[in-house]
Design brief:
Helix content of chain A: 40-55%
Radius of gyration of chain B: 16 Å
Low-confidence stretches of chain A: none
Largest interface: A-B, 53 and 50 residues
CATH architecture of the largest domain in chain A: 3-Layer(aba) Sandwich
Oligomer: heterodimer
Number of strands of chain B: 7
Largest sheet of chain A: 5 strands, parallel
CATH architecture of chain B: 3-Layer(aba) Sandwich
Number of helices of chain A: 8
Strand order of the largest sheet of chain B: 2-1-3-6-7
Shape of chain B: globular
Helix content of chain B: 25-40%
Structural class of chain B: alpha/beta
Low-confidence stretches of chain B: none
Distance between the termini of chain A: 59 Å
Number of strands of chain A: 5
Strand order of the largest sheet of chain A: 2-1-3-4-5
Order of helices and strands of chain A: EHEHHEHEHEHHH
Structural class of chain A: alpha/beta
Order of helices and strands of chain B: EHEHHEHEEEHEH
Number of domains of chain B: 1
Number of helices of chain B: 6
Mean pLDDT of chain A: 92
CATH class of the largest domain in chain A: Alpha Beta
Distance between the termini of chain B: 16 Å
Strand content of chain B: 15-25%
Strand content of chain A: 5-15%
Chain lengths: 232, 190
């Protein structure tokens, strides 16, 4: 592949600008911009709503040299509307075969501490890349992504140091038109905290976190409610 | 006893239609009340990821559309069946738009289950689960598909579950024994 010139940050989260996966993708695309690539950003949640939007989506993918595809984990897979976009992009590229094969990098995050929750979803994205004639550029999988709190990633160290280091390595390869190296995949998927600690914290403090969110909504609802219990 | 079939075909898919017919035939013969939901005909908004079904209106999606009916049907069934063309090794967008509404049957709180962190269940009992995929593009997709159904089972905790893939070019007459085998695995038929 010749030197890539453009990068499409394709956001598959319903939270759009507020999504954690976007912050990871943004860091990567900014690194690529530093290396001279022209970035563009698109939000599937908005484009999927109209025929014009889906047409634009397919064109954006066709015209990109690199697609950074960011998505959260939803029920062990990908959000439904994002799968719909994947079906449409695949259908379009099968009907209208393209000469160019953009490099597709998957960026996924989940709220669980174990990265294994994302393995199957990433295989699904890899299969999509193959069916849609996109080159597989590797995967960035971030467990406990909720800890990012929708904030931009910082290179100043702290819990995201391995993630930002891995993304910088990934950008160096992608800028040369190459998939991200295994080292970058491994660095980006390292847990923010030792796994035993992350698991214990989620179990202990997770409950408090959810209860606080509920309290923030005014009257604290019955968190254990079973609204569909009757009539069974 | 109630069974609900979520049909995730993207169009008038003859293979999925044949499997659905075989399921209805065998289940009604066994005395089950069968409810079929053709998902492509239903307006279900995509999950917003807002967690409102956990912290604002626990157990109920904040969006008032057919998604709420999906959750109710899951809770009210003893057997749940998912039908889908194998899509990139996973589920079609039509089936997934229903499954994303299974979140309200979970609690936000975490627990360790099968060695990993998962959400706790909101209800005490859950339906048995059968997942059927059709016509995988590649043989290796079948492995991914079956692994996905196994992970889903960790999250929706069916007392019994089974999954199978009905391959391309198979005689549609074989859907009956194919379905019969899956029903036997979840002990719906003997």
């Amino acid at each position: 592949m010749s030197q890539p010139k453009t990068v499409l940050l394709l956001n598959g989260s319903p939270k759009c600008e507020k999504s954690n996966s976007r912050q990871i993708g943004k860091f990567l695309s900014a690194k690529l911009e530093e290396k001279g690539l022209k970035p563009e950003e698109a939000f599937i949640a908005r484009l999927i709503k109209s025929p014009q939007g889906t047409e634009k989506l397919s064109k954006l993918v066709d015209q990109a040299d690199i697609v950074v595809f960011t998505t959260p984990l939803y029920v062990d897979s990908i959000p439904s509307f994002t799968i719909k976009a994947m079906e449409m992009i695949r259908d379009h590229r099968v009907v209208e075969p393209q000469v160019e094969k953009p490099l597709l990098v998957a960026v996924m995050n989940c709220g669980f501490p174990e990265k294994e929750h994302m393995e199957i979803a990433l295989k699904i994205i890899k299969n999509f890349a193959e069916e849609a004639s996109l080159r597989w550029g590797g995967a960035v999988s971030v467990a406990m992504g909720e800890a990012l709190n929708g904030e931009p990633l910082s290179e100043s160290g702290g819990m995201t140091r391995n993630l930002t280091k891995g993304l910088s390595l990934a950008a160096a390869s992608l800028a040369e038109g190459q998939p991200i190296p295994l080292e970058a995949e491994e660095l980006t998927s390292k847990s923010f905290l030792p796994l035993f600690l992350a698991k214990s914290m989620l179990r202990v403090f997770g409950k408090r976190m959810w209860n606080n969110q509920a309290k923030g909504n005014g009257d604290k609802p019955d968190m254990y409610a079973r609204p569909y219990e009757s009539g069974r | 006893m109630k069974a609900v079939i979520f049909n995730g075909a993207r169009d008038a898919d003859p293979v999925i239609a044949a499997i659905e017919s075989s399921l209805i035939k065998l289940l009604t013969r066994e005395g089950w009340e069968v409810d079929v939901v053709a998902l492509r005909e239903k307006q279900i908004a995509g999950c917003l990821g807002c967690f409102g079904c956990w912290v604002k209106t626990p157990g109920i999606c904040v969006i008032d559309d057919y998604g709420r009916e999906i959750t109710r049907k899951i809770v009210h069934s003893e057997l749940m069946i998912w039908l889908t063309p194998v899509t990139f090794g996973g589920y079609s967008s039509e089936l997934k738009k229903a499954l994303d509404h299974s979140i309200p049957i979970l609690l936000p709180y975490f627990e360790s289950y099968n060695g990993q962190v998962h959400h706790k269940m909101r209800y005490e009992t859950h339906p048995k689960l059968i997942v059927i995929g059709t016509e995988p593009l590649h043989a290796e997709y079948e492995e991914t598909f079956l692994a996905l159904t196994g992970r889903n089972a960790l999250n929706v905790r069916p007392p019994k579950h089974a999954a199978g893939v009905f391959r391309k070019n198979e005689d549609l007459g074989k859907t009956l024994p194919f379905v019969e085998d899956l029903l036997r695995k979840v002990e719906v038929t003997s």
